[in-house]
Amino acid sequence: MPTPPPTGPLVTRTTLTEGLRQLGVEPGEILLVHSSLSSLGWVCGGAVAVVRGLLDALGPDGTLVVPAQSGDLSDPAVWSNPPVPEEWWGTIRATMPAYDPLVTPTRGVGVVPETVRTWPGAVRSDHPQTSFAAVGPRAGEVIGGHATDCRLGERSPLARLEALHARVLLLGAGYDACTSFHLAEYRIPAPLVQVGRPGPAGWEVVTEVSITSERFDELGHDFERDRPVVRGTVGAADVRLFPVADAVAYAERWLAMHRPREEGILNPPV
């Protein structure tokens, strides 16, 4: 049976740039992008065209930032997609390659961030599980100093993006992907969790703030209702544009009221 033709719309580098500019993306700004390539339609040139279109919209003075997470560098005891047999855990912990910002691939964030990670001139932060990658003149300023025991808190690029008045672009992605909300979790009472991962000297366990995107879709709905969020479409994708600082401030209040969490240790050391 022949494959049906794509339904479109047809998206090109140029139409993407024009759509972003019409939405309000400004040359020279810093933009944290969460994206879904498939939501756009049929993109001529795929992820490369999307990255070029984003960079064109930002211009030579703008900086593109994406999540470059590698959550598979974690304890196999907590894996569920898919799980692995318990008898493998010890071997996995002993042999898992440590994080290398130059070669460790992203996982679970889509093909556009992986394309940015490998882009000429891209830089990537140091956290082995929740890194960010960036391209542009302020990339080093955004990415530098990401503490390896602070996934998405005050010593992560999120706090730097907030201070630099960056904006978030949800390009076909939902609020469940909005990492800026996680920064708020570090500013309200939250439990701690023991996080296992491969380190430079072997398997290591660090204590971290517990983060979860549970109810972020509801949080996003209320945020969009109460705060000025630019909405539109690019190709077939629903797009939202808003300041990082607005998202964090709103999430601090919302999470404390609607999703309070008790302090303490959620799991014992591995």
Task: Give structural notes.
This protein has helices spanning 13-23, 46-58, 89-95, 111-117, 139-143, 157-163, 180-185, 216-226, 244-258, and strands at residues 10-11, 30-35, 42-43, 63-67, 123-124, 132-135, 167-171, 192-199, 202-209, 230-234, 237-243. The protein is an alpha/beta fold. Strands 5-6-4-2-7-11-10 form a 7-stranded mixed sheet, with helices on both faces. A two-stranded parallel sheet has the order 1-3. A hairpin with a 2-residue loop joins strand 10 (230-234) and strand 11 (237-243). It is globular. It starts with 9 loop residues before the first strand and ends in a 12-residue tail after the last helix.
Overview features:
single chain; 270 residues; alpha/beta; 7-stranded mixed beta sheet; two-stranded parallel ribbon; 9 helices; 11 strands; globular
Strand content: 15-25%
Helix content: 25-40%
| Alpha-carbon distance between the two ends | 52 Å
The total of helices stands at 9
Can you list the strand order of the major beta sheet? 5-6-4-2-7-11-10
Give the CA-based shape: globular
Rg calc: 19 Å
Main sheet characteristics? 7 strands, mixed
Summarize the structure.
It is built from 9 helices and 11 strands. It has helices at residues 13-23, 46-58, 89-95, 111-117, 139-143, 157-163, 180-185, 216-226, 244-258, and strands at residues 10-11, 30-35, 42-43, 63-67, 123-124, 132-135, 167-171, 192-199, 202-209, 230-234, 237-243.
